[in-house]
Amino acid sequence: MTDLLTVTNLSVGSPTGPPILDGVSLRIGEGEVLAVVGESGSGKSMTAMSLIRLLPAPLTAGADEMTLGGHDLLRATDKEMNSIRGGQVGVLFQQPKRMLDPTCTAGAQIAEPLRRFRGMSRSAARRTTVELLRDVGIPEPERRARSYAHQLSGGIAQRVMIAVALAGQPSLLIADEPTTALDATVEAQILRLIAAKKRELGMSVLFISHDLNVVSAIADRIAVMYAGRIVEQGPAEEILTAPEHPYTRALIECSLLRQNAQGELYAIPGQAGSAREITVGCRFRDRCATAQSAHIEHQCAHAEPALVDSGTPGHTSRCWIPLQQTKEPL
Ligand SMILES: Nc1ncnc2c1ncn2[C@@H]1O[C@H](COP(=O)(O)OP(=O)(O)OP(=O)(O)O)[C@@H](O)[C@H]1O
């Protein structure tokens, strides 16, 4: 599969405090969905923001390589980036009603990229806007085109955002927790819509989520982030059924709503936030049951493991004692 996006050794830092992203490398094939998962604060959104060069000041990013199709995202001028965002890259966020401009109709917000990126006349953009609204499953599209954000439900607003994102005919859709604010039925509809559009248009998708249940419905490959690092990456099926990293396994336990012997719901012990302060050894070690066992603790505390092949093509993990070696059942 030809790669659409290649990111090598991406790091993000702030003038104060430890690095926010540390040596993140990703690739997304044409027409592929890569899901990035991890707890709040692990660096998922910062990864996406770095790609489209929209990091909030005073954060700065550096990478060895960052390419999308034929575009070098590291060297693109601000003007080029303006046309890549909304053109080659469409973006969906968690709070669709907040992301829509409250002063413009839904239709005007879809027509804008049609005119800007596809050079359509006013009347052609108006017609295509209605087609796009119909295409993303919005009933009465002519009427909805005249609605403002406050007149839309969360699910309809996210469909409008999908129409805005697709208007520029992107090769990559970045979807940052696009269903987190929606109720379960609407969430399933929006996931189905994203999957259908991806198939129909042959787009690639960078899908960001904290929820492995959601991710399992849509991802071809999964990258697991912890404290600014990718700790495991590989084919979705393999990550979900045969994880190598104890953190991935812990996320799966949480998503399955597993209970412990006392009948309590499983939760990962400790705080994710403090891991970034760990500069020596594995960042997950304080929360990792395997690392807490006496003979292993020494190794995990003294050197950070590298991201290495698990033995299956394309599956890598960053752990001294990968789970498949310990043969612990999931
Ligand atoms: N403007 C900022 N200045 C400094 N640090 C920031 C800034 N914005 C975010 N961070 C830090 O960057 C880290 C990664 O944040 P990011 O938003 O990427 O996490 P995330 O994995 O997307 O979490 P969530 O699911 O909550 O959005 C966090 O520790 C956060 O505190």
Quick rundown:
With 330 residues, this protein is of the alpha/beta class. Helix content is 37%, strand content 20%. The protein has helices at 44-51, 78-84, 96-99, 106-118, 122-135, 141-145, 154-167, 184-201, 212-216, 236-241, 246-255, 289-292, 294-302, 323-326; strands at residues 3-13, 21-29, 33-37, 60-62, 65-68, 71-72, 89-92, 172-176, 204-209, 221-226, 229-235, 308-309, 316-317.
Topology:
Layout: E1 3-13, E2 21-29, E3 33-37, H1 44-51, E4 60-62, E5 65-68, E6 71-72, H2 78-84, E7 89-92, H3 96-99, H4 106-118, H5 122-135, H6 141-145, H7 154-167, E8 172-176, H8 184-201, E9 204-209, H9 212-216, E10 221-226, E11 229-235, H10 236-241, H11 246-255, H12 289-292, H13 294-302, E12 308-309, E13 316-317, H14 323-326
Parallel strand pairs: 3-9, 3-10, 7-8, 8-9
Antiparallel strand pairs: 1-2, 1-4, 1-5, 5-6, 10-11, 11-13, 12-13
The structure holds adenosine-5'-triphosphate.
Residues 14, 20, 38, 40-46, 56, 59, 210 line the site of adenosine-5'-triphosphate (ATP).
Membrane topology: Peripheral membrane protein
Keywords: ATP-binding, Cell membrane, Membrane, Nucleotide-binding, Transport
Protein name: ABC transporter ATP-binding protein
